[in-house]
UniProtKB/TrEMBL annotation, chain A:
It is a multi-pass membrane protein. GO terms for biological process: transmembrane transport. Residues 75-282 form the ABC transmembrane type-1 domain. Keywords: Cell membrane, Membrane, Sugar transport, Transmembrane, Transmembrane helix, Transport. This is Multiple sugar transport system permease protein. PANTHER family: BLL4140 PROTEIN, DIACETYLCHITOBIOSE UPTAKE SYSTEM PERMEASE PROTEIN DASB. CDD domains: TM_PBP2 (cd06261). PROSITE patterns: ABC_TM1. The lineage of its organism: Bacteria, Bacillati, Actinomycetota, Actinomycetes, Streptosporangiales. SUPFAM superfamilies: MetI-like. The chain crosses the membrane at residues 12-37, 78-101, 113-135, 155-176, 208-228, 261-283. GO terms for cellular component: plasma membrane.
From TrEMBL, chain B:
It comes from the Bacteria. This is Multiple sugar transport system substrate-binding protein. Residues 1-21 form the signal peptide. The keyword Acyltransferase does not apply. Gene3D superfamilies: Periplasmic binding protein-like II. Keywords: Cell membrane, Lipoprotein, Membrane, Palmitate, Signal, Sugar transport, Transport. It holds the Pfam family SBP_bac_1. PROSITE patterns: PROKAR_LIPOPROTEIN. It comes from Nonomuraea rubra.
Length: 294, 438
């Protein structure tokens, strides 16, 4: 078909997507950028009508966000937390996926559901549930293990634990589904060549899984950067989590606790930029490795 | 952590936007009705945000008696979140017509131009409230930004049975409180006399008020911020020393952990406000009838001062097209004898109206062993001193939480955290351009 014969149809089919994208992505992002360049200015007491107005300050808010040491400490905390979560969660997800896929496993259906189930529990509920297990006088496990789950050093592990508990199932399912799609005769061939189950897993399955692993890693990096639910929900239970523990918590605090929407907008754009760099950076690093065939 | 959180968020945002698109019609209709001639007007419809329990039952009584002004209650989560939500709604242009506003948040609402001046509508009821409470809704200016609803004078709540068992007298001074704390540790190493909560700036504010603090004041056209004043540092030092010594605990209030300690008799006192019976009865049901109330310990023997923790007013949105109707409802709610009786009975609040305070009868059920509970409360209330709150209490309270969290964690003096509150508050006000007198 020649270009001119296509008529308006492609555009018509694209319209819903374009409208949704504009309404819920482009416009909010544009508005955030606009807000990030403003600041309130009050005069005198700042009370009553007309005492408060918005002024344009250009990139001042961005400069302030970048210079904020608390924000960078937040990044450091999230980096440590993220390293922990990524390694443990994806490691477990891969392990479970391989175990479930191996021919000899029993109760596969039950295990699959049992591992996936925590993912169905909303983040806040999951964190509260674990919070109860962490609290000294309520916890059935604390006395047995004799650890304080909520002190300054352990609290990161405790939060990571909640994230891993909730996230393993989803990632396992992505990997497992990919595994199921691999033609069985590949294994057959490997077995004829004398490979053990372990060798099949390492030499055959994992290489084929690589794109899926990259996908789950990128998802997890983005989710880790946006960690908010776990620390926010645990915060009232302990005095070891500050209101700016993670970058996104600082955005929430600025916008809704201290009433500075403009700083919050600027900080959220900085966060978006950093997640973009991190996730695309990761993709770049692994691209050749993961998508060799493409 | 959820990998598809972005997707979930978009879905929520989508449904929320669609839902609000769908419902925008009815909320706009009073506005439309307003512009039509009076004869064509249907009943005025008002929305009311509140977190007090059973407020819908009280509003039902109003709705029956006032077919021309129909109020719909929207139940909110209380505390600082409620204030944040209201400010956000006001900024987004769709606030409720009437809102329950805690005294410490009212200045932020005023500064954001989110509440209406009710001076004309409230001229006749000014005399029904004490000067102190009236000052909290005027900030000492000519305008009136809300109608006082309830107040929270602080008292000392204690486990009468355990005090008897351990032979502890009810402390009359804070010094005696400290000694009692040490005695408790000796008698039962698992129990504490009390705990210092780094999560409840409101409680600390009340204790500072009792000591005579004046964190903010207005002087002509400028603010004076004095959070790290001598009385506040005295209060901070006192609690800091007790925590460091191990004489009192440092677990936050309102956690499951805290509930359990109250229930099991592992925490023997709670310096709280007059609304404490409601909290205790729901959070520590097992200890019913074992608690009693007394005036707060004093800094100097023989004094009878207290401070305020919480308390709220009914404010009217600056954006409402039905200001007169909203003011009429707010006035009824807080001054009509029948309404106040309902507020006390159904919403378990300590009314702000002076006459109503002395008319309170039977003690709360949880304190059935203390028939003079309300008389005690009235006596405490008479000696309670508050102060004007500033326009950025959110910043101050956030600095309290972060600062005291850190002080507890690192074992550093509490006065450092107090100085942090002062510095954060002043820095935020300077950033916005408030005139500050030093």
């Amino acid at each position: 078909m020649k270009r001119s014969e296509r008529g308006p149809w492609p555009y018509l089919f694209l319209t819903p997507a374009i409208v949704l994208f504009t309404l819920f992505l482009a416009v909010p992002i544009g508005y955030t950028v606009y807000l990030a360049m403003l600041r309130t200015r009050v005069s005198g007491l700042g009370l009553g009508r007309g005492a408060r107005r918005e002024v344009f300050v250009g990139f001042d808010n961005f400069a302030a966000a970048l210079a904020d040491t608390e924000l960078w400490s937040g990044w450091l905390r999230v980096l440590g937390y993220g390293a922990l979560v990524l390694v443990v969660m994806l490691g477990l997800a891969l392990l479970f996926a391989l175990l479930l896929d191996s021919a000899r496993v029993r109760l596969a259906r039950f295990s699959r559901i049992a591992i996936f189930l925590p993912y169905a529990v909303p983040g806040v509920a999951a964190t509260l549930l674990w919070g109860f297990l962490y609290l000294p006088s309520l916890s059935p496990i604390r006395d047995v293990l004799n650890v304080d789950f909520l002190d300054a050093t352990t609290v990161t592990y405790s939060m990571a634990n909640v994230a891993v508990w909730g996230g393993v199932g989803f990632n396992m399912l992505v990997l497992y589904t990919t595994l199921r799609a691999i033609p069985r005769d590949l294994y057959e061939a490997a077995r004829l060549d004398g490979a053990s189950e372990f060798q099949i897993a390492v030499r055959v399955k994992i290489p084929i899984l690589t794109p899926a692993i990259v996908l789950t890693t990128v998802f997890s990096i983005i989710a880790t950067i946006q960690v908010f639910t776990e620390p926010t929900t645990l915060r009232p239970l302990t005095n070891t989590i500050s209101s700016t523990w993670s970058p996104l918590m600082k955005v929430y605090r600025d916008a809704f606790v201290t009433g500075d929407l403009y700083s919050a907008a600027a900080t959220s754009i900085v966060i978006a930029a950093i997640s973009l760099v991190l996730s695309f950076g990761f993709l770049r690093v692994v691209r050749n490795h993961a998508f060799r065939e493409g | 952590m959820r990998a598809n959180r972005l997707g979930a968020f978009l879905a929520v945002a989508l449904t929320a936007t669609l839902a609000s698109c769908g419902s925008s019609e009815p909320t706009e209709s009073p506005e439309a009705a307003q512009s039509r001639p009076a004869s064509a007007q249907g009943p005025v419809k008002l929305t009311y945000w509140t977190w007090a329990p059973n407020m819908d039952k009280i509003v039902e009584v109003w709705n029956k008696a006032h077919p021309d002004i129909q109020v719909t209650v929207s139940k909110q989560a209380g505390g600082d979140d409620a204030a944040a939500k209201y400010l956000t709604a006001a900024k987004a242009g769709n606030p409720p017509d009437v809102v329950q506003a805690e005294y410490q948040h009212l200045p932020s609402f005023i500064a954001a131009d989110a509440v209406a001046d009710l001076k004309a509508e409230t001229a006749s009821i000014k005399g029904e409230f004490s000067e102190g409470l009236w000052g909290l809704v005027t900030l000492g200016t000519e305008a009136v930004y809300g109608i006082p609803q309830d107040s929270g004078p602080m008292m000392l709540f204690y486990r009468q049975d355990l005090f008897d068992k351990y032979g502890i007298e009810v402390p009359k001074t804070w010094q005696e409180y400290g000694e009692a704390a040490r005695t408790v540790r000796k008698k039962d190493p698992k129990a504490y006399l009390g705990t210092f909560s780094s999560k409840d700036p409101g409680a600390f504010t009340g204790l500072a008020q009792q000591a005579g603090a004046q964190w903010w004041s207005i002087n002509g056209e400028s603010w004076k911020v004095n959070i790290a004043d001598e009385p506040t540092r005295k209060v901070a030092d006192f609690w800091g020393a007790l925590v460091k010594e191990g004489a009192i605990d440092d677990m936050p209030y309102f956690t499951p952990e805290w509930n359990k300690a109250l229930n099991d008799g592992k925490l023997l006192t709670w310096p709280s406000a007059v609304w404490a019976p409601g909290v205790l009865s729901s959070n520590a049901p097992k200890a019913k009838g074992k608690w009693a109330a007394a005036p707060l310990p004093q800094w100097n023997a023989g004094e009878s001062f207290s401070g305020f923790w919480g308390g709220s007013s009914t404010a009217v949105s600056a954006k409402t097209p039905n200001k007169a109707a909203a003011a009429q409802f707010a006035t009824w709610l807080n001054t009509d004898p029948a309404a106040i009786e309902l507020l006390v009975k159904e919403a378990a609040i300590y009314p702000a109206a002076t006459k109503a305070q002395s008319a309170l009868g039977a003690a709360p059920e949880y304190f059935a062993n203390q028939p003079d509970f309300w008389q005690q409360a009235a006596a405490v209330s008479a000696g309670a001193r508050g102060f004007t709150f500033g326009p950025n209490v959110g910043v101050t309270y956030n600095a309290f939480k972060d600062g005291f969290d850190k002080a507890l964690q690192d074992g550093t003096p509490f006065t450092g955290a107090v100085q942090g509150m002062q510095d954060a508050t002043v820095a935020d006000m300077r950033k916005s351009g408030f005139t500050i007198a030093s």
